[in-house]
Design goal:
mainly alpha; 5 helices
């Protein structure tokens, strides 16, 4: 496959994960214990740190985005196990985080292989 397809896979995973996290924590199932703003700050900020570099196709930013997506993968697995009422949201989080991780990883691999 061409390198650009992996980049599109990573972007799809990113935007899916971003939208899911925003909706899940504000509309679908907001937290009863913490303020919504604090939850959003803790959940969305790690995604936004390497985002500008990822949009520019920077390999180092894509590598960091791949590492960060593993946090969302483990969080999704733990939520799917501990909260059966939010199982589908957690499985979507796992799917989007895997798309982001695989897309970024293969994008960087293909870029390093061609140079």
């Amino acid at each position: 496959m061409k390198r650009i397809y992996y980049y599109y896979l990573a972007l799809s995973g990113f935007f899916g994960l971003f939208i899911l996290m925003m909706l899940w924590n504000t509309v679908l199932a907001p937290s009863d214990h913490f303020p919504v703003a604090m939850v959003l700050l803790a959940v969305i900020t790690p995604l936004l740190l390497p985002f500008k570099g990822m949009l520019n196709g920077n390999l180092k930013s894509c590598t960091w985005m791949s590492y960060i997506s593993l946090f969302y993968f483990t969080y999704g697995i733990s939520e799917a196990y501990t909260t059966p009422s939010e199982l589908y949201y957690a499985l979507l989080e796992v799917l989007f985080s895997l798309m982001l991780c695989a897309g970024c990883s293969f994008y960087v691999y293909k870029a390093e292989k061609t140079t």
